[in-house]
């Protein structure tokens, strides 16, 4: 839809209108070409491969229909990986939202050392994730774990915790590392959102006698909802599709109990050379991504309507 | 009475702020402290079982050493990985800037109403993750004969840097005042001249942001590198350090944590400088700056 005044307001633009539309296309073409050829086509290829028995060894393959899907749906390891992906993704987002809101409320205050503090809490998000995961692998080491030493010395633990060698503790370790790496990002986004809360509304509520919690839940959180949504949506993508944390921390073990879709797809598709099955496993990420895409579109539309 | 009460509340609120801030900082920074102390500890101080409650692992119990650092830089492929990473970063940054900056400008200024939708469309492709694409890409890379070559990474990494950076640049150009360009066109410059003479000068901070975020996105990448690259000499830092600093079954934790530390510090500093622009891009305009 074209607004009636849009063109008459800028006469200089009108003069170049024809060349502009050509220029727009020329400038956009490389980006669109890259995205179509190297995201669009591989995406379609992923779907096609999941219906084939393609292997890494040879380039020829046959169509096998839904065989890959029926194999993985009858495979307890796959079902466990699907469940783990969902559990980890949801648990991490809940913890991240709580921690990030608390951290943002803290870092909104004025205090000594705030700049250094902000720099330090940003560290987990800034550094290459694989290197940070190696630090955590060392922290959770079965023999040398500093966490175990500290728990033992403080008297909180009497036995021994094999963080990465136990199915439940393994999942907890993965969740800890994911929360650690994502909460700084969410904190910064929520902090940015807090600056957009109209101060007169907050002040009016204080004059009306609203306490801290009432202000938080009835005024600030509703204003923060769009930014928190954005943080959660990115968080879902980063958690659900992540390979490196699980691959390096537990390797899916012990006994395949901590696999997620990404690690299982890699194990079957690349290490096991069964591209078809790997592709089928990875495609189960689509529901997670679809939810995110719909959410993003809603946020984008709302912010456009709210004040362009 | 009530005045005193209010003071108590104010003081406890301050204390609570400091305690909370310290708690978050401790949680965030603890692994980096651990990297640092591990890097400079002697092996006899490092490899003491955690069951030994008399040996405090949080501090240096023996004099600090540079042995692990020397090992890392002289006897491992770490310097080679740094070099490989630099090559990939430079190439991917060049491709991303050349493709994403014009696209972002076009979407912000030239494309009109359909630019909005197209911009969101390009951004959504950022949500198609490497985890979905690494299997078909392993095929594509094999067909092109690029296995175990840095070229495979240079070809594939722009698939996530271009969508993201196009979006960042679009937001950037929207925030640059339009009247300067308009004035230049009224002065008789053509659109293309305006872009080269006026817009690019304004665009420097935006382009710099693209460079920084392409750099950090490439540094973070793991799954494609793991899929395409198999020989140690061709690895990037984020692949080589976790995968290839293992001798047999033995981790060289001192050298490994050293590599993590020396790679992380410059990244953290650069990131901190550009965080605000990054947030503006990520929040899709849900936050008005």
Question: Mind explaining what this structure looks like?
Answer:
- The complex is a heterodimer of chains A (308) and B (289).
- Chain A is mainly α and 308 residues long.
- Helices cover 73% and strands 0% of the residues of chain A.
- Chain A has 14 helices and no strands.
- With 289 residues, chain B is mainly α.
- Chain B has 13 helices and two strands.
- Chain B starts with a helix and ends in a 7-residue tail after the last helix.
- The mean pLDDT of chain B is 86.
Q: Could you give a quick summary of the protein structure above?
A:
The complex is a heterodimer of chains A (308) and B (289). Chain A has helices at residues 11-15, 17-50, 67-73, 76-108, 114-126, 129-139, 146-153, 167-194, 199-207, 212-240, 244-249, 261-271, 275-283, 286-306. Chain A has 308 residues and is mostly helical.
List the helices and strands and how they pair.
The complex is a heterodimer of chains A (308) and B (289).
Chain A: H1 11-15, H2 17-50, H3 67-73, H4 76-108, H5 114-126, H6 129-139, H7 146-153, H8 167-194, H9 199-207, H10 212-240, H11 244-249, H12 261-271, H13 275-283, H14 286-306
Helix pairs in contact in A: 2-13, 3-13, 4-8, 4-10, 5-8, 8-10, 10-14, 12-13
Chain B: H1 2-39, H2 43-46, H3 67-75, H4 78-110, H5 113-125, H6 130-143, H7 150-156, H8 158-175, H9 179-186, H10 191-220, H11 223-228, H12 237-244, E1 246-247, E2 250-251, H13 253-282
Antiparallel strand pairs in B: 1-2
Helix pairs in contact in B: 1-13, 3-13, 4-5, 4-7, 4-8, 4-10, 5-8, 8-10, 9-10, 10-13
The percent range for helix content of chain B is over 70%
How large is the share of residues in beta strands of chain B? under 5%
Measured between the Cα atoms of the first and last residue of chain B, the distance is: 43 Å
Q: Which runs of chain B of at least 5 residues are low in confidence (pLDDT < 50)?
A: none
Shape of chain B: flat
Largest interface: A-B, 118 and 109 residues
Number of strands of chain B: 2
What is the top-level CATH class of the largest domain in chain A?
Mainly Alpha
**What is the typical, i.e. mean, pLDDT of chain A?**
86
**Main beta sheet strand tally, sense and closure of chain B:** 2 strands, antiparallel
């Amino acid at each position: 839809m074209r607004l009636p005044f849009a063109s008459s307001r800028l006469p200089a633009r009108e003069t170049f209108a024809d060349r502009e539309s050509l220029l727009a296309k020329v400038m956009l073409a490389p980006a669109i070409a890259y995205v179509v050829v190297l995201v669009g086509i591989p995406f379609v290829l992923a779907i096609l491969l999941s219906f084939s028995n393609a292997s890494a060894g040879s380039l020829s393959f046959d169509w096998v229909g839904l065989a890959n899907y029926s194999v993985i749906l009858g495979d307890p390891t796959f079902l466990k990986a699907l469940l783990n992906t969902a559990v980890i993704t949801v648990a991490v987002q809940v913890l991240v939202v709580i921690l990030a809101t608390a951290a943002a409320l803290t870092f909104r205050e004025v205090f000594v050392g705030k700049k250094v503090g902000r720099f330090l809490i940003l560290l987990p998000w800034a550094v290459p994730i694989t290197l940070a995961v190696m630090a955590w692998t060392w922290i959770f080491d079965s023999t040398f774990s500093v966490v175990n030493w500290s728990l033992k010395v403080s008297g909180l633990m009497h036995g021994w915790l094999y963080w990465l060698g136990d199915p439940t503790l393994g999942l907890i370790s993965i969740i800890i590392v994911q929360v650690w790496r994502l909460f700084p990002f969410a904190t910064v986004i929520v902090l940015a959102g807090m600056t957009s809360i109209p101060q007169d509304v907050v002040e009016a509520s204080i004059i009306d006698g609203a306490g801290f919690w009432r202000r938080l839940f009835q005024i600030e959180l509703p204003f923060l909802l769009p930014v928190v949504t954005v943080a959660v949506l990115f968080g879902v993508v980063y958690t659900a599709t992540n390979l490196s944390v699980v691959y390096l921390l537990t390797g899916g073990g012990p006994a395949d109990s901590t696999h997620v879709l990404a690690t299982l797809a890699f194990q079957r598709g690349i290490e096991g050379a069964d591209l078809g099955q790997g592709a089928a496993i990875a495609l189960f990420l689509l529901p997670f991504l679809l939810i995110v895409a719909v959410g993003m579109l809603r946020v984008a539309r709302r912010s456009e309507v709210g004040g362009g | 009475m009530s005045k005193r009460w209010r003071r108590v509340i104010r003081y406890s609120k301050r204390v609570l702020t400091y305690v909370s801030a310290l708690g978050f900082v401790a949680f965030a920074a603890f692994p980096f402290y651990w990297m640092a102390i591990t890097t400079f500890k002697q092996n006899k101080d490092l490899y003491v079982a955690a069951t030994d409650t008399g040996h405090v692992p949080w501090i240096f119990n023996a004099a600090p050493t540079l042995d692990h650092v020397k090992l890392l830089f002289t006897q491992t492929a770490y310097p080679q990985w740094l070099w490989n990473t630099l090559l990939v970063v430079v190439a991917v940054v060049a491709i991303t800037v050349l493709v994403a900056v014009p696209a972002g400008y076009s979407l912000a200024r030239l494309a009109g109403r359909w630019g909005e939708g197209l911009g969101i469309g390009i951004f959504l492709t950022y949500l198609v993750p490497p985890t979905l694409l690494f299997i078909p890409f392993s095929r594509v890379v094999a067909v092109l004969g690029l296995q175990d070559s840095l070229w495979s990474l240079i070809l594939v990494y722009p698939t996530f840097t271009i969508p993201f950076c196009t979006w960042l640049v679009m937001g950037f150009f929207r925030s640059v005042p339009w009247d300067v360009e308009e004035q230049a066109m009224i002065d008789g410059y053509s659109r293309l001249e305006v872009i080269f003479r006026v817009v690019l000068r304004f665009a420097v901070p935006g382009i710099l942001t693209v460079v920084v975020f392409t750099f950090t996105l490439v540094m973070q990448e793991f799954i494609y590198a793991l899929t395409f690259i198999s020989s140690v000499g061709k690895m990037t830092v984020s692949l080589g350090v976790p995968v290839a600093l293992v001798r047999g079954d033995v981790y060289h934790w001192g050298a490994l944590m050293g590599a993590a530390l020396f790679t992380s510090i410059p990244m953290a500093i650069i990131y901190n400088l550009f965080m605000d622009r990054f947030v503006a891009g990520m929040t899709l305009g849900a936050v008005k700056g």
